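Sharing a chain and its predicted structure for anyone who wants a worked example. Both blocks are below, sequence first, tokens second.
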Amino acid sequence: MIRVSVQHQGFDISAETAALEAAGVGAVASFCGIVRGGDGVTAIELEHYPGMTEASLREICDMAVERWGLAGCTIIHRIGRMELGEAIVLVVTASAHRAAALEACAFLIDRLKTDAPFWKREFRGGAAQWVEQKASDIERGSEWDGRA
């Protein structure tokens, strides 16, 4: 089971995890990204390319399912304006064994940071600024290419 959603509204982590647990697997791993402050950031806004974004997320899910033999995979990514402390992204993986679930979860979050067409703007007070992709995210995402 693969579930991909790009949405404005929040999500229920427990419900999303339970949906994959219902497959009767031995392991479920998850990652939830949260809007963090620091450096004066008060909120963020994410935009995406409709249709293309969902296809990109589906493609990386397909890669993870094939590579780690997952029983299921969920990616939910929010768009629009989000305030400090709000959840931005959820990745949940399910497999027979913990190593596969954990590795696939790490792979998915690393690759979606580089492969999915999202644009992020940070708000500091009344000013807003678009954020460039981080070199460290690109490096982490590409490290998966050389792993067995």
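Comments welcome. The domain at 2-142 is CATH 3.90.1170.40 (Aldehyde Oxidoreductase; domain 3).
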